[in-house]
């Protein structure tokens, strides 16, 4: 069965983005970017792939489906209609109209029901791209966390999980550290 994987970057104080959705403050030295691009090429947006020396048509490695919240999909200064065109894209939103966003599938209903349906289908795993509110709605469906921890304090912004108190145990299974202090840690549901 497919897994729902929450692959996310987080500051030391628990934010995945700044108050306006900013993520450009995370320190990403070249060796880190190179490793991440090789390990998780599916997470590189389709329109960015050529700029980082990747084939835009590179087949999926880890995930063939991406699930985003509205805030992750509609960034104020940089909206791309089909950011991950190399995957099946779902956007959970009660305010976006499908007719206005033909490059993705808008999901106005229960995201957990969608995830359970997707898990039963054939394919690679499902990437939960963000954001924190959607992650909190899906906490019972998340099978694996891949957390990119950056050595920086944001001070405010979008929390990694927002809006619900629901202690859920995960166990660390692997860790990769980088010279700049960034770490990537894999967790599986305990």
TrEMBL record:
This is Dihydrofolate reductase family protein. It comes from the Bacteria. Gene3D superfamilies: Dihydrofolate Reductase, subunit A. Residues 3-183 form the Bacterial bifunctional deaminase-reductase C-terminal domain. InterPro entries: DHFR-like_dom_sf (IPR024072), RibDG_C (IPR002734), Riboflavin_Biosynth_HTPR (IPR050765). It holds the Pfam family RibD_C. SUPFAM superfamilies: Dihydrofolate reductase-like. The lineage of its organism: Bacteria, Bacillati, Actinomycetota, Actinomycetes, Mycobacteriales.
């Amino acid at each position: 069965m497919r897994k729902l994987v929450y692959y996310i970057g987080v500051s030391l104080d628990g934010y995945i983005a700044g108050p306006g959705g900013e993520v450009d403050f995370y320190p990403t030295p070249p060796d880190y970017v190179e490793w991440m691009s090789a390990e998780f090429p599916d997470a590189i947006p389709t329109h960015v792939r050529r700029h980082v020396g990747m084939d835009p048509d590179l087949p999926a490695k880890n995930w063939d489906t991406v699930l985003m919240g509205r805030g992750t999909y509609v960034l104020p200064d940089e909206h791309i209609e089909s950011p991950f065109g190399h995957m099946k894209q779902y956007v959970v939103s009660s305010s976006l109209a499908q007719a206005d966003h033909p490059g993705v599938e808008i999901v106005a209903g229960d995201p957990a029901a969608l995830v359970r349906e997707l898990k039963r289908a054939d394919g690679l795993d499902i990437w939960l791209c963000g954001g924190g509110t959607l992650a909190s709605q899906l906490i019972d469906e998340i099978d694996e966390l891949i957390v990119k921890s950056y050595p920086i304090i944001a001070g405010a912004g979008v929390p990694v999980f927002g809006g619900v108190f629901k202690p859920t145990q995960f166990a660390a299974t692997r860790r990769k550290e980088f010279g700049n202090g960034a770490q990537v840690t894999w967790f599986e549901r305990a």
